Structure formats: C-alpha cells, structure tokens
# Entry
Amino acid sequence: MTDVTVAPAHVDPTLDGGHDRMAHIVLEGWKPEEGEFISAGPSVVEGLVTGTPVKALCGKIWVPSGDPQRFPLCPTCKEIAESMGWKVPTT
# Structure
C-alpha cells in the first residue's frame, strides 16, 4: 500500500509561477506485502509542523502550508500517480 498526501505549495507573492499555485502529491512511503512501512521522506504533516521541505511526485521541493483544496491539482503529479495505478485524491 502506498501513502500519498496532497499538499499546497507555499505561495510566495513575489513569484509568478503557476506551478507554485498548485496542490502537489507527496509520496510519504509505502508498505510492502510483508514488512514494515518504509518512509520516502518527510511527511506533509511534518512539513506543516516543523517547516521541513517535502518533495512532490513532479519533483517540486517546498515547505507545505495552507489548505490544498484552495489550489488546482498539479497535472504532472496527477499524471505520475495515475500512471502508477494509484487512486488520485481530489482537491
């Protein structure tokens, strides 16, 4: 089972990039059929609480903040997740 979380990128008003104004999918880890959960890096919750950067499926690295439902889903993250057969969360 794979754990993914959708998180918004921190919007910096000095940036004009559309990629920064999207919710991204973060792979937090996976659990093999046998064995313990394997972390793929910091979780979105950890990023929100401690300010630790997280990495999205599309490669974007940022500190998550805010409500992901306020942003459209990154099409690159969505495409990658769907190509892996994952159920894509709705935002």
